[in-house]
Amino acid sequence: MNKYYDFEQIEGLLSIVLFGSKARGEEDDFSDVDIFLLVEDIPQDRIEEIIDILKSKLLFDNIRISLYQISTYKQLLLEGSMFIWHLKLEGRIIYKKSNINLYNNLVPFTKFQYNLSLYKKLYINAKASLKANGMNEFDLSQLFFICRNVCLLTCFKLSYPTFGRISVYDKLLEIIGVLPLSRENYILLSRWRLSYTRAIDLNLNFPTGVNMLKILAEIDNLFTLSREIIESGGQNVGKITKHEDILEKIEKRQNFSI
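Now predict its structure.
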């Protein structure tokens, strides 16, 4: 990154935040560099100009940009957007205008059941596609996207916010002690996600029919577990509450096997 570049001179730019694996220090050979940009309510052509300028000044490879205009961003603060919480908890501010408070008015995230229902719909669609089209890279990639987000949502509910591709699974496993989705199958699906989204040849073989049914059964049980956690606890109010009552219920449950 060009440490000496004056971002203040870029008209319309309000903030730059590094987030994701690079910000956490967890990057690997497959990681993108995730950059969040906040801009004023400006025309699309000016947005594209700002992106081009920043890509030339931020000396990272594989930059992936998430950009919001200020009016949309303010609405996300009032909705308690999990993405904004991600930025607040793990982001590293590269630049912001002096009059900008990025996280002022950010309310607690509360849409646990709503988000879980969205992931369940995606899961139902992926299963239907696998049945109709047979084994394919896209649907296996989608299964990882779904599993990662279910783990992320569940960790957040338990007040252990974690966002890493693999670390979110490991954190949930650490909290609960046992998960219905095996780490081996989670890693396998993560590799299909990398293969599909990055066009990386990882020399993968499609799961057999029997193994695929096992993976789907494990994901079914992951949804059951997440739903129980979400329905058992109160709303997250922005405090670190470990919800020991929920963990005790999980410890006693016998609804799934590993």
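Confidence is low (pLDDT under 50) at residues 234-243, 253-258.
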